[in-house]
Every structure is written in C-alpha cells, then in structure tokens.
C-alpha cells in the first residue's frame, strides 16, 4: 500500500513538472492570421508546435507568406512610382518590445528585418534606406530588386489608365498622372482659417485662444477606402500563443497598390528599375545605394533610346538604354503595417489583435491597441473587435477594414466594415487550418 501511494505521488509530481515545462498542454499553441493564408499559418503552427517562442513562430509564419508571395513580399503591390517596398512589424507581448521596418527597399525579408531591429537595437522603427542598410549589415540577403514582371505590368497598365484610381485629393489636374498642385491656393497668412467675411467679435469665436479656428464640419469624413480591397491591399497580420502561453504578433505588407510615395529626409538618390538593361549598370546603382554614396541616376527622354546621366561621388557618367527602362525616385509612403497598436498589438496578460484594411484611416484610431485594452477591461474578443471597428466607422462610414481578436485563453473572433473578411486559425483541437468568415 505504501509503495502504491509513493508511485501515485511520484506520478502526480511528474505530471505537474511536465505542465511547467510544456506550458498549457492541449490548449496551445494557437495561431491566428488575417485572410486565408493557410500555408503561412501552417508554418507558424509548425514552429510553435516544435517549441519555438511566440516571436520566432510569428516570424516563421509571416516569412513563409513573404517567400511564397501569398499576398506580400517581393513582387507585391507597386507604389505610384512602380516600386515595391516592404513594411513589417513584430511585437513581443510579454516584454512589449517592438521591432519594425518601413518603406524598406532591396531586402526581401521584411519580418526578419523587423525582428533584427527588436533584438539588436534599442529602437522600435527603422525606415527607408537606413533600414535596408541595417538589415544587410546584420546578414540578410541584399541588395535585390523587389519588383517583379507582374508588379511592373500592373503599374504600366495603371499609368496607361491615367494613373486612376489614386490617393490624391483636392488637386489639379484631375484624371491625370500629374504633377499635381492644390486645387485651392493656400491662404496668404500662414495658419489662417477661413471664417467668412467678418467682422468678428469674441462672441463669434468658439475659443478665446489666440489663433483659434473653426472646428469644421461634423459630417462624416471621406476616406481612401474606395480604392482598398483584398485584391489591391496585401497584408498579413498574425498572432501566436506559444506552448508556454506567451503571445506575439507580426505584420508584413507592401501596402496599398499605387500608394503615394512619401519623401524621407535621407540623402538625395534616384535609381533605375530596369526591364531590359545592363546588369552591370544595375549593380552599379545598387552598390551606390548599399554603400550610401551620394548618387543619382537621372533619365532623359530620347526618340529611340533613353540617355541616363549618372553622378556618383562627384564623377559624371552617361549611357544609353532601351526605352523599355524607366525611372523611379526615392519616395516612400508608409501605411499602418509597421505601427504598433494599429496593424497589430499583443499583451500576454490579455491577448492580441491583428488588422487589415485602409491603414491611413485605421492608424488614426490604433484599433488593435483599443481591442487589447477593451479585453483587459472585460470585453469578449467579439465585442472588443466590433467596438474598435465601430469607432472608426462612426467617423469614416465608407472606410474598409477588418480586425481579428484573440484573448489569452484562445477565444477568437473577428469584425469588419465595408467588405467580407476571413481569418485563419490553427489550434490543437483542429486537424488543419480552419478559415472563419466574418460578414460586415
């Protein structure tokens, strides 16, 4: 009897110790992702099932999507100038550490670059050329051209269609590829607000603060969402709960198709994306970028060929290339993909959220931060996701976006506005990835 009792106690202690080592056995890991990115979810699940941390599992899942080009990565959505760039983010929900890259060029591993920022710097976000140089210096392959024949063809058709649709507003000329200028000239007084003909007295003003202006209309605000759809907006946002119950999120995206590039105060540089051109000259321009020389590759129209004037560190070069080549400037626009709290957010004590849609609008509300905080206050994932979407829709009724929410126990839900949303899940109770559909 004593021997049996000892065996029972030993067995209980062993089970208890296994629970400490393997975490929440039977409950985790759990992987949730925007859209039916089944292979990416499988990759994240396999990593977590093999004992990878939540952060590493998210990186494996998002990286699989980049490599497979399921909807993001090299060859993805071109911007207004025809170039493909990458935005990515990874967040550790246990430590709240975040690593992100934005408008990154020449490096195809967006999510791995974001992880390097988190692991090897005290920064949160690196942008543009410096993000590319950092990633390459830390061992990622590059520089490489991120455009593809498909992305270039898509861009050429868009240019042939008068650069429509686009993301400009209140500019002239309309239905054109620009260059654009404001439709209404700015006021001659800096910061002045139009308040009618006057004269005005203090009682007419809504504020006694010097320089106060009219608060404007309370009518709903138009957004860029009519141009956003699953077909022209590629984003994967993924959450993983690992075997220990730790949570992480990651995002990788090329951003909205034909987005306006936004200028960054780095160094002036123009470069060429070639359809048919000398590989030596391509290497020359790419090397000047990687080595951070002050270089410019400037293109001039000719009747049969295009003459390229290149200045590199004070030395001038010229060459002719076929007219099938074109010019793209150092311009960037960044959406909400690399913004913690907007595209994704995680807190191991609460849960996680991932988002997709009109990032220009959504980043103004930090919907994923809102979701996690709502769950912290007791809301279910379903109500928290719906509440965050409604907060945006009240201001922007025509916006398009979606959210998934998952709490620390593994309960998940989604909410959307303006489109039908799908998200993918893999848990121990499933034989394979399952796709859930959410109606607006």
Overall description:
The chain has 440 residues and is of the alpha+beta class. It folds into two domains: 23-147 and 225-261 and 335-438, Glutamine Phosphoribosylpyrophosphate, subunit 1, domain 1 (4-Layer Sandwich); 267-329, no CATH class. Helix content is 28%, strand content 25%. It has helices at residues 2-22, 38-49, 54-68, 110-120, 128-137, 149-160, 279-290, 359-362, 367-376, 381-395, and strands at 30-34, 86-92, 98-104, 125-127, 171-172, 181-182, 233-241, 247-256, 270-273, 295-300, 305-312, 315-322, 326-329, 344-347, 351-357, 401-407, 412-417, 421-426, 434-438. It has an eight-stranded mixed sheet with strand order 4-3-2-8-7-1-18-19. It has a four-stranded antiparallel sheet with strand order 14-15-16-17, covered by helices on one side. Helix 3 (54-68) runs antiparallel to helix 4 (110-120) and helix 9 (367-376) packs across helix 10 (381-395). The longest helix is centred in the N-terminal third of the chain and has 21 residues, at 2-22. The radius of gyration is 25 Å and the shape is globular.
What is the domain total for the residues?
Answer: 2
CATH class of the largest domain: Alpha Beta
Q: Could you say which overall geometry the principal axes of the C-alpha atoms support?
A: globular
> Helical stretch count?
10
CATH topology of the largest domain: Glutamine Phosphoribosylpyrophosphate, subunit 1, domain 1
End-to-end separation: 64 Å
CATH architecture of the largest domain: 4-Layer Sandwich
Physical arrangement of strands within the biggest beta sheet: 4-3-2-8-7-1-18-19
Average of per-residue pLDDT values: 75
Alpha-beta content class: alpha+beta
Listing every helix as H and every strand as E from the N terminus to the C terminus, the arrangement reads HEHHEEHEHHEEEEEHEEEEEEHHHEEEE
Strand percent estimate: 25-35%
Residue stretches low in confidence (pLDDT < 50, at least 5 long) are: 12-23, 188-218, 262-333
Instruction: Estimate the helix proportion, in percent.
Output: 25-40%
Going by CATH, what is the homologous superfamily of the largest domain? (Glycosyl)asparaginase
Backbone CA Rg:
25 Å
The profile of the biggest β sheet is:
8 strands, mixed
Q: How many extended strands?
A: 19
